[in-house]
Hints:
Blueprint lengths: L3 H15 L5 E5 L6 E7 L10 E7 L10 E4 L30 H13 L9 H9 L1 H15 L2
Antiparallel strand pairs: 1-2, 2-3, 3-4
Amino acid sequence: MASTSTRRIQKELGDLMNSPPKGIQVVPDEDNFQIWTITITGPPNTPYQKGKFKLTADFTKDYPFKPPVLLFKTKMYHPNVDSDGNLCIGLLKTENWKPATKMTGVLEAIYDLIETPNPDDPLVSSIAEQYRTDRKGFDKKAAEYTSKYAT
């Protein structure tokens, strides 16, 4: 009999395949459906537009009681994503995670974070500072990273 984690991941994957959020594509690993490759198309009218950003979602046996581990595989100049691909989003913090949280909502929140960075909860404080004080310079550098790494 399938575990709670297995059933939940299969249900969430089915929901995402049937009704994917705008700009987001999910592909499960052929050998392990608990690992997903996610591609997010950069939101329009941002320095990330036209970019394709890949990340992985790794679901542990404790899912949905613990959040999945999400990592960006595409380099990104963003205050909430560090050079190792870790992302800072409140929804995925262990203390904020709720078992009822759906992956559709998580992926939409990540898309929103790409569209509108949160410099008040950064992983890279220098990028957050530039975002706050030199938006034109930030946009230029983020667009350079996008064209270099996210194609």
